[in-house]
Amino acid sequence: MINIIWFFILAFGIIFGIVCGRGAEISKSIIASSDSTVKLIINLVGIMCLWCGIMKIAEKSGLTYKIAKLMKPILKLLFKKAAKDEKAMGAIVMNITANMMGLSNAATPFGIKAMKELSRLNNEKEEASDDMVLFLVLNAACIQFLPTTVISIRAAMGSKNPAETIIPAVITTTIAAIVGVICCKIMDKYF
Fold first, then answer.
1. Which residues contact 58 (CB under 8 A, 6 or more apart)?
2. Which key words tag this protein in UniProt (predicted)?
3. pLDDT in tens, 31-73
4. What are the backbone angles phi and psi of residue 62, rounded to the nearest 5°?
5. Which of 50, 60, 145, 152 is most buried per CB count within 10 Å?
């Protein structure tokens, strides 16, 4: 549906611009925005490669495993059924740990695996279990110790201090995760 809405917005804007005699300006703006988009993507690729390399070193050195080990007792308190299943908890812990370290590419397969494991534990296949909802909330509002994507975009756009968003990101994502968990636990009691 959103694709249809965007299509009509763009088509209306282009047609309106041509009818008003601004076709040349529309062409120039399309070319300029395409040029700046390609430059941004090329800059982002280099920076993202750097961060992915740093995160891979953290993963190979065992840093992500150590964080996962610290997270496991906390997550066992939050999840009801999944806490009793080693496969489900392993995938949940690795997904959340990878997200915390900014390894979103590595987190996705763990997230898919965690949802499959949580689905396996779910008795009602037509509805998401409380653990599935909680995992989705934690995955979406995961605490970010290193927001690599934001840092990369800021660096690609020429920011003088692209990493200055680390502390605000840690604070806001922590608050979001806590509020999300509290809301899930309140909703568990009523639904």
1. 64, 101
2. Membrane, Transmembrane, Transmembrane helix
3. 888 888 888 788 777 776 776 777 678 778 887 777 777 888 8
4. 95, 5
5. 152
